[in-house]
Structures are given as C-alpha cells and as structure tokens.
Amino acid sequence: MQAQKKGVLFVFSGPSGVGKGTLKAKLIEEFGEEIAFSVSATTRAPRPGEIDGKDYFFITRQEFEQRIANHDFLEHAQFAGNLYGTPKPYVVNLLDQGKNVLLEIEVQGAAQVKASMPECVSVFILPPSEEVLEHRLRGRGTETEEKIEARLATAKQELTHAQEYDYRIVNGSDLEAAYQALRGIYVKYTR
Ligand code: ADP
Ligand code: 5GP
Q1: Whether residue 3 has pLDDT greater than 80
Q2: What is the structure's pLDDT at 1?
Q3: How far does residue 122's CA lie from ligand 2's centre (Å)?
Q4: Could you give the CA distance from residue 78 to residue 156 in angstroms, rounded to a whole number?
C-alpha cells in the first residue's frame, strides 16, 4: 500500500487590510475539500460576529503563556499588543492526513515557520499603495481610529519583509487577478 502523501503547508502574510481574508475565502471556496485552515489562538478580543473556535480560539494571556511553556505552538508572535499563535499538533496532524494547510499569520510567525519547516510555501500579499491599504482598512470598519493608526504603522514595517517570502502578489484593483496568481501557486504545489 502506498503511504499517505503529506499535505502542503502554505504561509500567507501581508499587512492588515490588504485582502488576505478575502483571497483565502476564495481559495477555500474553490478548493475547500482539500484545504484545511488552521485556527489560531489569540489574546485579542473577538470582533462582532467572530466565533470562538472558528475565527480564533480566544484565550487569556495567562492561558496563552501556559501554552507557550507547553511548546504547544508551531509559532507565536505579538501583534498590535496582542498575542497570536498557531496550534502545532493540529497543523501537524492535518498535514499527515494529506490535507493542504493554510496559515494566515504575520511576518515574525511566518519567519519562525519557514525556519522550522522550510518546505512550506510562503506568499506575501502586497497593497498597490499605502493609500489604498489605509482606505481598505478604514472601509472594513472593524477597528477604532487608534487601532487603525497602529496597524498602519505596523504595515509599513511588515512591507519591508516581503522579500523574505517565496512569492509576492499585489492585490490591486483587480481582485480576480490577484486570486488567479494565488491559485496558480496553489495548483503548482498541489498537483
Ligand atoms: P485582511 O484579511 O488582509 O486584513 P480583508 O480581506 O479583510 O483584509 O480586506 C480588507 C477590506 O478590503 C475588505 O473590506 C475587503 O472586502 C476589501 N478588499 C479586499 N481585496 C480587495 C480588492 N482587490 N479591491 C478592493 N477591495 C478589496
Ligand atoms: P487580526 O487581529 O486582524 O485578526 O490579525 C492580526 C494579524 O495577526 C494578521 O496579520 C494575522 O495574519 C496575524 N495572525 C493571525 N493568527 C496568527 C498566528 O497564529 N500567528 C501569527 N504569528 N500571526 C497571526
């Protein structure tokens, strides 16, 4: 009997508001049956409509720190004052079952994953300009003004890491074009 083929790990980053969630949803819509997407743990408060266990596992800082001590995370990082981490056993099990796994994480965590699992495929989503990014982030309407300012400052810093990724995709005015670029990368590594 042939051994189960392992899944491919995709790591996705890009500044807040660039369209990662939108692109990820399109990929899942088309390839949902073969992709699993990891649900991260975070100390951030849920946004209206977010569901515990689906969007994130919303946990306390104390619980998060305990899980770091237990080596429960594949990677973890601080972003805009909150902690975020990828549950390791969950991701490893899915890959072993042959599922392709998608991690949508920020740049520090992505660097940790690339270091420990260099076979992963990393993709950075870029905005066409800083102005467009600001417009999208404000348009989404999920953050307070103070949080928007903090995320825009972080975004500038994050953009300097784009070169560390295997691929870069600009999500400009044509969402479909960005999706086709992403789809092409996905298909290349999974067929
Ligand atoms: P992220 O997950 O990277 O924070 P989102 O996917 O939530 O970003 O997108 C931020 C906002 O920008 C959303 O309101 C989304 O509908 C919009 N958006 C995403 N891609 C595009 C695009 N190519 N053109 C215009 N608006 C977009
Ligand atoms: P948000 O608060 O907008 O949901 O996420 C903020 C940032 O944290 C985004 O860049 C998102 O990709 C990143 N993020 C979400 N989950 C994780 C995780 O498990 N690890 C890391 N390092 N970053 C994450």
Answers
A1: no
A2: 60
A3: 15
A4: 16
Third-level CATH fold of 9-190 = Rossmann fold (3.40.50)
Whose C-alpha lies nearest to ligand 2, atom 12?
A: 105
Structure tokens at 59: 């946990």
CA 136 to ligand 1 centroid distance, Å: 6
Per-residue pLDDT at 106 exceeds 80? yes
Q: Which ligand is nearest to the CA of 81?
A: 2
- 48 Cα–ligand 2 center, Å: 17
Ligand 2, atom 2, residue with closest C-alpha: 44
Q: Are 101 and 39 in contact (CB under 8 A)?
A: no
3-class secondary structure for 26-93? HHHHHHHHHEEECCCEECCCCCCCCCECCCEEECCHHHHHHHHHCCCEEEEEEECCEEEEEEHHHHHH
